[in-house]
Sequence to fold (595 residues):
Amino acid sequence: MALQIYMHYMLCGYHFIESLVILHFILPYFLNSFMKLSRLSVAFAMLVYGVSLPAQTADSLSSVSPVSAPSLSLDQDADPAPSATPTVRPYKVMDDLTFVGIPVFAAGALAKGEKRAFRVNQPGNNHTLLTSFKTRIDDYSQFFGPAMATGLKLAGVEGRSNWPRYLVSAGLSYAFMGAFVNSIKYTAKEMRPDGSTANSWPSGHTATAFVGATILHKEYGSRSPWFSVAGYGVATATGVMRVLNNRHWVSDVLSGAGIGIMSGELAYALSDLIFKDYGLVRGCSYGNRMTLDKPSFFAISMGVGLGSRNLDFDMDSYFYDEGDTDSRFNLKFGASTAVSAEGAYFFNKYIGVGGRLRVNVAPINGWDGAVDIANDEINAMFASDVFGFTPAEQVIYDAGINAQGTPGMAGYSPALVEKLEFNIKSDHLSEFATDLGLYFSLPLTDHLALGSKLLVGRSVMQEVDLNVTIFGGKRNLVSDDYGNLTAVTASGETYDEEWDYLTVSANNSWKFGTGISLTYAYKENYAFRLFCDYDLSRKKYTMTYNPGSYYFEAVSFDGINISDLGFSPEDFIERESIRKFRHTFIFGGSFSVLF
Fold:
């Protein structure tokens, strides 16, 4: 029966009023049952705790905060003795409220400005974004938290709350989350990166994943911090997949994560106010542990990246257009947005091992200049002076490449270049990096610790592409026995070509990283961290310039295709490579779960 109630209110989590109604009906019944059962447990507890205080339990990874012995104690000064069940700490609303969701949400709101560096992909603007990555895993991983928590309870694994308290807390969590997400989504009306709908900010999938992770953390983090790490880790992966799927911006995911955490904490705080001490089955296992103990952590971070800011390709000699184009191919990058998931396990209070997954995205300032160059170059390739025509031949050529006949009538042929579109697949440089290495911590006070790290990893860069689509009527250049142009004829056929006009790529490379951080543990197992990271890699950047692939479809000479004359598409491609050290400084903050 309890499982049916839970599944119903998970599916109807957005209906806050319904959650209160169920609370109204089930609370008296369960409290009455609880009071009957608790009389024996209270008597037993008074006898046990009257002899000693509980110590660390065999089924918990961490120590718990003891409750003061009652007045019936036989020996108030006795040493603590082992206990089979963790002490249930009296509820305190402020103890469980971390408010960490607020800065995470605010970071997402501030990061909304990063969309200005990109173009939303919608009809008419000729831009697409990011990657061709597609997966449906995020549609299911968003439910990992509640599935795990409910599965553990069904399996009889004791969590923080009994079934009534758990059901109400979970139902309220999803009610708050649904109210926050939908009220903002349909008020802000932010367009998604793929241009499909105007409800991008904040991310509902990410909010769902993080509210579930918070439920799992609240219920089972006291048994083992790895439940918390698993929940928040899968939630982070869900947010990353939403970005890679072109469904959300980084800002949407950050704000969604903040809403999810806030909703879970508010719901559990409200449940604490309603239930008070009733229904608390298991206390917090962390006690008053701060960073002076083993500072193992899992963190979600966001920062601003500075460092190498330009790539200068000398491409003047390759251009058909004789204009000054070099400055527009000195690609300059703006400040980057960096988002990462990071964790480390410490063997003691000073040293540990861990790793980091980071996405660092830098917009290219002035990348639209490449569109102007491409337009000039393609038109210049069809200019009559490129062929060295005489004035008479130029007249024949210029007339021949224009549209022939009347649109819609027999014999009509569009111009040689009838339609020309440019599609920036990516106007930003994205780095995906994984690192492993040593982590260090130096405790300063009970709440403060200075940290550092030495990491080595791999860096993968996403290509920057300018794609061209061209449509027109095929033309045949006819010459006499002496090679003089005598006519330009339309075959009646058309061509429609799409290719990568310009691509900037980088090789995968090894990278080295270090950094310094200051961690403030402001709750038993939560911390804020300010950091400055430095990464170094050496990369080979290659610009591939291909202005003329369509020639093979668009033009023939005396009925002979260009490929039959001994040319290949590779003859139109030029490449320029430079090797350069990539220095990256990232300043930011993170939210950490300590374990």
